[in-house]
Amino acid sequence: MSELPLNAIFAPRSVAIVGASRDPASLSAGVVRNLLSAGFRGPIYPVNPSARHVLSVPAWASIEALPEVPDLAVVLVPAALVLPAVHACGRAGVGAVAVLTAGFAEVPGGADLQRALVEVAAAHSMRLVGPNCLGVLSTAEDVRLNATFAPTMPPPGNVAFMTQSGALGVAILDTAAALGLGISEFASVGNKADVSGNDLIERWEHDPRTKVILLYLESFGNPRRFAQIARRVSRSKPIVAMKAGRTASGARAAASHTAAMADTDRTIQAVLDHTGVIRVSTVEELFETASLLATQPLPASNRVAIVSNAGGPGVLATDACASRGLELARLSPETTRRLRSALPSEASVTNPVDMIAAADSDTIGACLDAVLADPEVDAVLTLYVPPITADTEAVARAVVRAATCATSKPVAACFMGAHGVPAARHALERGGVPAYAFPEAGARALAHAATHARWRHESEHDGPPKRAPSRIASRPAVSVTQAADGWLDPVPLAALLRRFEVPLVTERVVSYVTEAVKAAAAIEGPVVLKVLAEGVVHKSDRGGVLLDLDGANAVADGFTTLKSRFGDAFRGAIVQPFVRGEVEIIVGGVNDPRAGPLVMFGLGGVAAEVLDDTALQPAPLSEEAAERLIDRSRAAHLLAGHRGRPPCDRAAVRTLLQDVGALLTAHPEVRELDLNPVLVQPDGEGLMVVDARACIQRGRPPR
Ligand code: ADP
Ligand code: MG
Fold first, then answer.
1. Residue 550 alpha carbon to ligand 2 centre in Å
2. What value does the mean pLDDT take over residues 421-428?
3. Among positive and negative, which fits the CA dihedral 110, 116, 120, 123?
4. Which atom of ligand 1 is found nearest the CA of 581?
5. Distance between CA 101 and CA 136 in Å, rounded?
6. Strands (E), 141-267
7. pLDDT category, 257, cuts 50, 70, 90?
């Protein structure tokens, strides 16, 4: 085997079980039993000072007493004894340890013990899996390692699996075995004190046996590093992630579990979308998706043909495909002709193709060949409900043959009912065609594959992300004195925005009525007055924005009104030209302390929060990424010109998104930026930011 990272863990030549108990019902004896029954290719060494043997295997009094230095030590001693045990492993020169024992950072007061454990392992240059985990497993023929206490060994295959939850790992290994989903390697990482999901992804990137990577995550240790690695690996191997904690209460539960951190879900989603990681929300969906990706090629695009022998399921499948963004392929005339000649006249030869109940294996094979040969078709979902007379297994074999011949298009099968179906599903699985119990499951898996394929295409064809030239980016955003209570004052904010070419409306800060009138007179056309007042963030909510003021009297009255309305809190006002725009949008962003810079886009104005129509994209942004960000919000429809309104300057919006991305990237100390609203003009006339806010994180130096 080539030297992959973490080989001492996944391809050890010998394994010690430190803390192996004589009690056959104990977890440690379970590990010994699993190592034996999986047929591990090297020697195993139970270590127990007071046992002569564990499950008929001779036991050793200590690590030092072993006849050779093991590559891997599985540690199961009680928490209080873990440190000395790992220390002994280190002194003996063990390559890596997997600490299955619980009672570390996941329990109150256990963090110190975990830190000490990491230090001991690091001092001896040993990699550490866990603590508080289920162990590791490899199905490689020359390794056959089951160093877990899970009851089932899955069949060998090309899916690598990492889980943060040990209990879920047990369930997943069971399910994989039941579904016949082959596993290459498995790791339960527990508290991820050393070996993390990122380390595993990097190993599996280079592991020739692994084609698909599955992750069950409760937290991201380092989301930015994850994003970097996942984005690279996703180009060659799909990564499917189930991230627990989607809902608010789920997030709280996850936060108190396995030392997890609460992540805001939208941020996580934006990062995952950007990295091409396929996110699923249930364990079922994880398996459905994995079994398609493990066996079938990715579709070139999203046009699906549905071939069924029953009308009802065909309609269900059609709906399921449409609701997941798959398109029903328009079959070419040549395909229609071929189908017509293969099928009786009652059959329907348009997509969804209904072959009618009596279709036999030859007919089904011929129909699948026809649609798979059609250049208008990227993927096929075939549904079969066996009538009482059917040879269901023969139909399954026909599906397998057709799918095997079409090497560049994925085929998913759904055999419904009971008559001969279990055997047929088995034949499909053996033949490498994913078999689903219901059409929705097949549609969902195909949709994930199509989305992933589109991401790959995009990530290969996108231009470079836009960054500010270094002479601009390297200047500090702001000196600390310019930001009162975290919010940046208007004048330095305007300077910062202009530096990044953000078109902010010309504005003057005024303190007296005469000043206000003078500033307004210098502006052509009507003006706007906005209050500057202590503690007022949303000005218009408090009657602090006066629009469309025409003439000196209106301005003077307006200023006086604001002054009396805000009393002691009043600090002055801003005078701006009154700008007309076609559409109000919001452009903003955050520098998430963990996920990094993200740009936000959506419908804007004072109702932005209520409409809640915003999308996020990690920065910096390429032109193409900015275009996609626009399309993810309903604001895109308004920008296109709606109900007789002219189309808006979309190119200017795209540039603004890229510039904001460049600003956030260059200035991590800008924690939040809010341009709301941005008034977008008709095509070719640009846009104008009329309200801006930025929150500065004190003491956070630029990267
Ligand atoms: P806030 O968000 O603090 O309530 P804004 O400055 O965003 O205050 O103003 C509220 C609304 O007033 C904006 O959503 C926009 O519709 C309108 N508005 C603000 N400034 C201008 C301007 N210069 N020209 C035209 N309309 C404006
Ligand atoms: Mg505003």
1. 21
2. 93
3. positive
4. 25
5. 14
6. 145-148, 156-163, 183-188, 212-217, 239-243
7. very low
